[in-house]
Amino acid sequence: MFPKRISQKMSSLIKPNSTLTTDEKRYCECLLLTRVPGNPFTNCYKDIGTTSTRCDTEYNYTAFTKAQLLKVAEQRYITIPEPYTREQMLKNIQKHLQEI
């Protein structure tokens, strides 16, 4: 079961002025942290009881670790630069956000 509260660490990964509800924030956190095999969107919905289509626009990507950036890229089919650079990965994510 996913924690009821948003972790201190996660709170910095969501924009400070976010309008997400607490449950939406938990759902977005779950998407980043889940290690359960299968579809993370379905697994997090089952665990949290809600979804959000706004995670992508509410994340503070500059605070993400490399692993978190790669996880978002994998989940959203965003091109991972070769060779990997953080700056190019952030640009690819921003491009994806403009297209949605």
Structure overview:
The protein has helices at 8-11, 22-33, 40-48, 55-58, 66-76, 86-99. It has 100 residues and is an all-alpha fold. Helix 5 runs parallel beside helix 6. The longest helix is centred in the last third of the chain and has 14 residues, at 86-99. The chain is globular and about 40 Å long. The N and C termini lie far apart (31 Å). The model has no long low-confidence stretch (mean pLDDT 87).
Name the overall outline: globular
Number of helices: 6
Strand content: under 5%
Rg, Å, rounded: 13 Å
- Spell the H/E element sequence: HHHHHH
Proportion of residues in helical segments: 40-55%
Quaternary state reads single chain
Query: How far do the termini sit from each other?
Result: 31 Å
Q: Could you say which structural class the secondary elements and strand pairing correspond to?
A: mainly alpha
Q: How many strand segments?
A: 0
Low-confidence stretches: none
Integer average pLDDT: 87
Largest sheet: none
